[in-house]
Structure formats: C-alpha cells, structure tokens
Automatic annotation (TrEMBL), chains A, B:
PANTHER family: ADP-GLUCOSE PHOSPHORYLASE. The active site is at 166 (tele-ump-histidine intermediate). One of its GO terms (molecular function) is UDP-glucose:hexose-1-phosphate uridylyltransferase activity. This is Galactose-1-phosphate uridylyltransferase. Its cofactor is Zn(2+). SUPFAM superfamilies: HIT-like (SSF54197).
Length: 331, 331
C-alpha cells in the first residue's frame, strides 16, 4: 500500500509510492554523466575561469585583495534583479508590480574549472560558506532587501548553465508567499507546542536514527521522512537560530566537513547526480524568534516534476526514504 | 529594469527578467522534437494501443460498451494510490502518515498512438473533457476522496513516460497545502472586495486585450500577467463556478474548440512544445462558493526550474507576457 507522508514543518504531503518503488542503487545508473566530469582545469571561454575575471563585476574575493583568489563573488552579468534603482510599487487593476531591484550575485567556488564541491577540501568548502555569510550580512543591510536566497544548481537537470562550480545569492525586495506560508506553519506549531518544529524534527531523527546520514557537534544531516524526491536531504544546525546571518561564525568550521561528507556520499553512491543546494533562512528584517530555524536542503534531481506536482503541490516519490538513508550510510 | 509581478489570485511573485528577455520566437527553436512526432499510428509495445487493452484495468470507454473505443479510462497499472483499502491516519512523533488510498487513472485520449490533442477535432477533444467530467463526478462520490487533480504531461520535459496521448486523474485522500493556500487567498480577496478574484482577472484581461489569445461565448484564454514561465496560459470559464464537477455539461462543447485553438497555436508557433495541462477545481467536499473558480492552466516546459524556484517559490521568466500573447495571436 502506498503511503502519504506529511512534512511536519511545511505541512506538505508526499506520496511514497511503494508500489512503484525502485531500489536506491537504480538512481546511480540513471545518472547521465555528461556535464561535470572529465573537464579541463581551465576553459578559456568560461567567464569564471582564472584570466577571464571581469574586475568591474567583482564584489569581493578570498583571500581579500590577494592577486590569486580561492573564491570570488561577482555580480551576475545578466541579473534577474537590478542593484541600482528605487523600489516602486504600482497597483493598477490586476497589474501589481514592483521594480525589480535587488541583488543577483554569483559565488565562484573555486579557481579550477573542473573542481566540484563534493571533492573539495574542508578548508575550500569553508571559504564558500564563509562567503555566503559575508555577503548575506552585507546585503541584509540594504533596506530594499526583504529576503535572501542562497542556492547552487549543480548540473544541467538542476538548471545550471555553466559548469564552473558556483553558487548564487539573490536578494529579493519581497518576502515570497511560499516563505510566508512556511513561517506561518512553523509559528502555528510553536503556538501549539511551545517548541520549534525543526528542533523537534531533529531530535526525533536523531533518536530514531534510521534516516540519519551524518552528524557532528553542531550539525546533523538526514533524509526527510516526507522526502519530496529520492535522497532529499536536510542539514540542520543543532543550535536553534532563525537566521543564518546570526550564526556564530566559529560553527562554520563544523558545517564545511558535514556538507562535504554528505555531498561526497551522493557523489560516490549516486555517480555525481545533478542537485540543487538551498540555504533557507528567516527573512532579513525579521528578528530572531523561537519558531523558524535556518537549514540547508539538498535536492538531487533524480526524478522529474510533472502535472501532479504543478497542479497540487503533492510529489510522488518512488524511493523509500529509510532505504535511501541506509544506502548512503553504505549499509 | 526587471519587474516583479504578482499574481492577484495566488499572491505569488514572479520576476519578469527583461534584461535577459528573449524574443518569443526563440522558444520555437529551442524545442527538440524527439518525442511526439513522426510516430507510427500503432505501436505493438504500447499499453494504450488498440489490441493491447487490458480489460481488467478498464473503468469506462466512449462510446459506452462499443467494440471500438474513441477514449478509455483505465486504472494505472502502477498506481501511486491504491483504490482498495481503508483510510487510516497515524501520527507518531514526526511521522505523520495516511494510507495511500485514492484513485490513479489514465485517460487514453485517442485510439491512434500518434494522435495529439492539438491536432484532434473538436469532437475528439470534447470526448476527452467529457471523460474528465464523468470520472470526476463518479470519483467525487467516494467519501475517502478530498481532492481531484486532472492533468496531462505532454512530452518528456513535462514528465511523460509514454507517448500515446493520455491524461491522468488522481483522487487524493487529503486537500494539499498548496490548494488550501490558494483557496485562502481567493477567500481573502472575496472578503475584501465582495468579488471572485478570477472573475476580476478575467474582466480585466478582456478589457485590456493585450494578453488575450482566444475567447468564445463561455470561455476565454489569456497569458497570465504574472506568468511563471514563458507562455503560461489560463483558460477560464466566464460563468463563476467553484467546481468543474458542477458545470453545465452543455458548455463543454464550447471548451473543446477553445482548448483546441490554444493548443494548436502552441503547436504551430512553438513547434509542438512539451507542456503540462492542469485542471484546477475546488476540493470535492466543498460546496459552491463565491470565491473559488475552476480553470485550466497550460504550462509549456520551455525553461527549467532551478534553485531559486525550489528555495523561494519565485520564478524567473525570461519572456515578456504581452509579447508572448501577441506572438500566439500571430501579430
């Protein structure tokens, strides 16, 4: 019998389609390795490669002001949002719009064209997450920005158009409805129980263990009970905090190795699958609170969304989350 | 300057990325015509082809009980939901689940393997929408069913795995959160204004005209002001009604030609793009009301969702809706 499972935090339902279930290892075979592999260390046509830096687009680099950089943040050359301009709202019948002001930046994660997060060192990954934090804090100061999204599209199926390893940072002049709904659900749980729903989920996953992948002193990674797709993973900080921008920077040295561990398991067990990495955090102007909790989500693109997902928000997941977790643990 | 536009009904924001805007005709070139074209009329391995009918899976056919069928509804051989079984809810810490009972049916739209909705006759399309209505009404009677989703995945990028033209009907034992949010937004608009937000949008689009594609006595089709992707189309009935299941069947003869017209324009102007077709209707047990309004959505799969959409629900649309509408009107 198939099962409908509900994500306690978002209240979203997924169908775990046990009748169509596929063993976790089939997803390794399904991956077509055409994009991120066997590239050269340098591509002279790549805008993110050493030697092609457009310095007028550069925002910052690590190490600061060094002639050789490890990571860089640059403004997107074709930004979805414009950095300069006033925020103007216009409501005219059904036509409600806001000028598209905000930030659209690219974080170039590594000098080498053929590097990939899963195979970087802890130190290298740490400088990536440090850049997230630095730009997150800097952009948050802009009064026009209401919400920040940090994400990475790895591989073509995840929406990447350039293979050089990079993340994106978008500063929006609105809080999207989807985010409002999630916060509202978390607040409702808090009002009902007096607890953060994410802390509750984390405690429960830690005590059950069957969906855990890895953990350390400050972070824990598990496959979601109500995964919307195969190998859908959350990495939660153990300390309750609504905004990533408010974390103690010293904990970043615990995030990097855990992220590396999880991505390396996906890389080796699933043949470097395409995936999206998303950092979710409370809207920039909201104070710290007891109900929201920042986290990283990793969504491998191993199945395709279709009419049911578009039409109802219900996902069909043909993989059993507990089996996926055991597979990534190497059992 | 890019624009953020808000969908008045769903309150979702999209970024119309004018800086990255592409002329509508580029989408015709982007389509790879590998899937639905130049197929044979019959494929002996296709489970939906004449001669391969598994009669024990058949639910109904048109004409009724005829030896030769025009359209058939069959139970999905690998259903995401089981038709037989009790509805049992279990809440155990974070593990909240419901037995996966419900309906998962396939509507085979045509006898011929190489038929496609866009090229069918009005009569043929009418028998497809009549089947939606018939099964919708029959499934709604089951007390375990809370919500019905009718959809079609056309082409591989839209999630189709079999090329024989077909739709799917899913009867869910829950009302998904996504649907609840949309209804809530519509109700709020109604409480504020005394009007249905969909009727309001329709009136506005009809009077503006610039995003209209086609209309007749009972239905109208337009590109959404806040399209989440290029050529995102709604077909709205002019008569206010929350549930498709409550329509006057005589109006179906007006829906078929309009649907054909819209799909034919997409087919000819965009080279038979992959698309999802979704029929949205009020949950099965909710009475008729003044705020929700059933409709058809057509979402061509011409761009790919990525980290921003997953992480915030905000879509980046690189096509200007008004230009897309003019292009489909042949201007």
């Amino acid at each position: 019998m198939p099962e409908l499972r509900q994500n306690l935090a978002t209240r979203e339902w997924v169908i775990i389609a046990s009748e169509r279930a596929r063993r976790p290892n089939v997803y390794a075979e399904a991956t077509d390795r055409t994009f991120t592999h066997e590239r050269d260390e340098h591509d002279e046509r790549c805008p993110f490669c050493v030697g092609n830096e457009e310095l007028d687009l550069e925002v910052c680099r690590l190490p600061d002001d060094g002639p050789e950089w490890d990571t860089r943040v640059v403004r997107n050359k074709y930004p979805a949002l414009a950095e300069v301009g006033p925020l103007i709202r216009t409501f005219n019948g059904v036509e409600r719009f806001i000028t598209g002001v905000g930030y659209h930046e690219v974080l170039v994660e590594h000098r080498l064209h053929n590097a990939t997060l899963a195979l970087m060192t802890d130190e290298e990954i740490r400088s990536v997450v440090e850049m997230y934090l630095r730009r997150g804090r800097e952009i948050s100061v802009d009064p026009r920005v209401e919400h920040l999204v940090f994400f990475k599209n790895h591989g073509e199926r995840a929406g990447a158009s350039l293979p050089h390893p990079h993340s994106q940072i978008i500063g929006l002049p609105i809080v999207p409805g989807d985010i409002r709904h999630r916060i509202e659900e978390a607040r409702r749980f808090f009002d009902d129980t007096g607890r953060c729903v994410f802390c509750t989920m984390l405690d429960d996953e830690l005590s059950r263990g069957e969906r855990m992948i890895a953990e350390n002193e400050h972070f824990a990674a598990f496959i979601l009970y109500a995964s919307s797709s195969p190998f859908h993973i959350w990495i939660l900080p153990r300390a309750h905090r609504a905004s990533f921008m408010h974390i103690d920077p010293s904990t970043l040295k615990y995030l990097a190795p855990l992220l590396r561990d999880v991505l390396f398991r996906l890389y080796t067990h699933l043949n470097d699958p395409d995936y999206n990495l998303i950092l979710r955090s409370s809207p920039t102007k909201e104070p710290e609170n007891g109900y929201f909790h920042w986290y990283l989500a990793i969504v491998p693109r191993l199945s395709r969304s279709a009419g049911l997902e578009l039409g109802s928000g219900v996902w069909i997941n043909p993989a059993i989350p507990e089996e996926c977790a055991a597979f990534l643990r190497g059992e």
